[in-house]
Amino acid sequence: MRGPVAALAATALVLSALLAGCSDDTADEPTPSGETPTSGGTTTPAGPGQSATADSGPAYSDWELGVHVLPRTDAGFGEIRPTPKSLRVRRFPTADLLAPPDGDRFASTIGPVTDAIRTRMGDTWSPRCPVGLADLRYLTVSFRGFDDAAHTGELVVAASEAEKVVSVFRALYAADYPIEEMRLPTTADLEAPPTGDGNNTAALVCRAARGATSWSAHAYGLAIDVNPFLNPYSKGEVVLPERASAYLDRTRTQPGILHAGDLVVREFARIGWTWGGSWSSLKDYQHFSATGR
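Above: the chain sequence. Below: its structure as tokens.
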């Protein structure tokens, strides 16, 4: 397991953001095609996105996710780039890693982090992390995708917060709030080169807080980043994900963008979690936490 500072740099895209968190780039050269890397967001075959007619369903963005690698900065993040035209109104289908809910009704599970799940998590958790596996829970929850279909997502959160977190996603599903992707971050995400176009809603990643050496709330399973590309992290000239600058315009009202007082913010507030979009020293529009940080 890397130390906290190195983990921060490696997880700039998982964030959120997570974490990984926070021109049209037509000159970017894609890496070899095939399946897009897991760090780029929803796993779809590389190549032009789907355009659709009224008969075949919604039209999707034609950006190749996880393919256009960014140069790294001295801080370890990717170079900040303008939002590509095809991502300024972002819409992708969700690839099902888990079976969708039966009958389109909300479903959820709360269970321990089993050996199989621990193996999938890879380097996103280790015995050096500030919370043990016994104090974490593996959740599955239904969510509505930007493809208008019902899907099953997965999160690892602190055991003390598991039931409350499920109640939030139950309310979001009932309101048809759209989420592009919700899967466990893995070692592949930590090791992938930065592409700045990820949009995975995720919770536990054992890493330092951005710009610090202390543990992030994500390292305790006490934070969740929601639609991070649509709700980026911003401090000074740093924007994460690195191609999400267009979404710093919070007058945007397209589905999935978070605003003060909306349903998502109210639901997390109901369970005692705070929103990074209300912070003054920086803005972390994707970030909700039980710790206030």
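The longest strand covers residues 136-144.
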